[in-house]
Design a protein that fits this description.
The structure holds 2 protein chains of 2 kinds.
Chain A lengths: L5 H9 L4 E2 H11 L11 H10 L3 E7 L5 E7 L1 H25 L7
Antiparallel strand pairs in A: 1-3, 2-3
Helix pairs in contact in A: 1-2, 1-3
Chain B lengths: L1 H11 L4 H21 L5 H12 L2 H44 L9 H31 L8 H38 L7 H25 L3 H8 L2
Helix pairs in contact in B: 1-2, 1-4, 2-3, 4-5, 4-6, 4-7, 5-6, 6-7
The chains are: A alpha+beta, B mainly alpha.
Chain lengths: 107, 231
């Protein structure tokens, strides 16, 4: 189930500030309180796909360690997509909540 | 451990060298970052843990294949439109040149020339319509997370459209070649031959490039076909 929503999760994790792949994974772990402990390698194909779709933009920077790293940022198009996906998710979540809510027995 | 791992991952991504280089650099940074964040004092143990948490290189490479194929398809779609446009521009330039230099029209084999002109016109417009359609089609398809049967079917339709555009463009270029030979055949050799000959070379190069793009989509790396067979 998580796999189908990875694009949205990664976009959301990057929505507050630009970050590199490792930081994105850390952010997802933090926001999900450790519930989404993804195999780390799965995030990179998602980052590349989102960049290819124009939802993220990436640039190479030099880290304090002296290593080159790619930092990703959500584009304006990415923000629009995230807003849309959030609305769809809220609707879906409300619907599921309604279905799962126990029905009160008539008096 | 890390160097060995990133080299293996880079080899798995060999189907697209630029992607392979980029991912290798990104993943190497990621793994060293994971090692420095590891509380363990044993460095080699931390490296092994970082690599193990990252996942199987083959499985990761498989996740890149949909994006890679989609990228190739998009480049092919854009190239189809640009190359067909280039052939049109070159064709127009040649006709302008004939008119500027007052080149005499084809006299011998006039009937053959008329048939070829008609084939040329139809073939070119078919290439234009099919090329534009394949570009619009691929731009509308969203890249999936993995190569599923639905996406493969869509790519198959894209390849069919692109093949129609390519075959039609080749027919148009061959017709242009026949017409150019007929024109040059009747004239005396001069410097004025340079532009028609050069324009034909450009047309042939454009058609060749489109064939190359098509082959890159129609014949993806062998292991991507293996993966799809397992789905």
């Amino acid at each position: 189930m998580l796999k189908g929503h990875l694009d949205m999760i990664v976009l959301a994790a990057l929505s507050s500030r630009p970050a590199h792949g490792y930081a994105v994974i850390e952010e997802i772990r933090r926001r999900s309180a450790g519930a989404f402990d993804l195999p780390e390698g799965t995030v990179y194909p998602v980052l590349h796909r989102l960049e290819q779709a124009g939802l993220l933009s990436g640039r190479w920077v030099t880290a304090d360690s002296g290593r080159r790293r790619r930092v990703y940022e959500v584009t304006a198009r990415g923000r629009r997509e995230l807003t849309q996906q959030r609305a769809v998710w809220r609707q879906f979540s409300d619907a599921i909540g309604g279905v799962f809510r126990p029905r009160r027995k008539p008096a | 451990v890390i160097t060995e791992y990133v080299e293996r991952l880079a080899r798995e991504l060999d189907f697209e060298p630029s992607l392979s280089r980029r991912v290798r650099r990104e993943v190497e940074d990621h793994l060293w970052e994971a090692v420095s964040a590891d509380p363990s004092a044993d460095r080699s143990e931390a490296e092994r843990r970082a690599v193990s948490d990252f996942g199987d290189p083959r499985a990761i490479a498989a996740q890149f294949q949909a994006g890679s194929l989609a990228g190739r398809a998009r480049r092919a779609g854009v190239s189809a439109v640009l190359l067909i446009g280039a052939v049109f521009a070159v064709m127009k330039a040649r006709f302008t040149w004939y008119s500027l230099t007052q080149w005499p029209p084809v006299d011998r084999m006039r009937e053959l020339a008329e048939v070829v002109v008609s084939v040329d016109r139809w073939a070119f417009w078919l290439a234009f319509v099919a090329g534009t359609a394949c570009w619009l089609y691929i731009e509308r398809i969203r890249v999936p997370a993995a190569l599923g049967t639905e996406y493969r079917a869509r790519l198959g339709r894209f390849v069919s459209l692109c093949s129609v555009a390519t075959v039609a463009l080749i027919a148009s270029v061959v017709s242009d070649g026949v017409l150019t030979v007929l024109r040059l055949w009747e004239a005396d050799w001069s410097v004025a031959f340079a532009l028609p000959v050069l324009s034909m070379a450009v047309e042939i190069a454009c058609a060749g490039l489109l064939v190359l793009h098509l082959l890159r989509i129609a014949r993806p790396p062998a292991w991507t076909r293996e993966e799809s067979g397992g789905q």
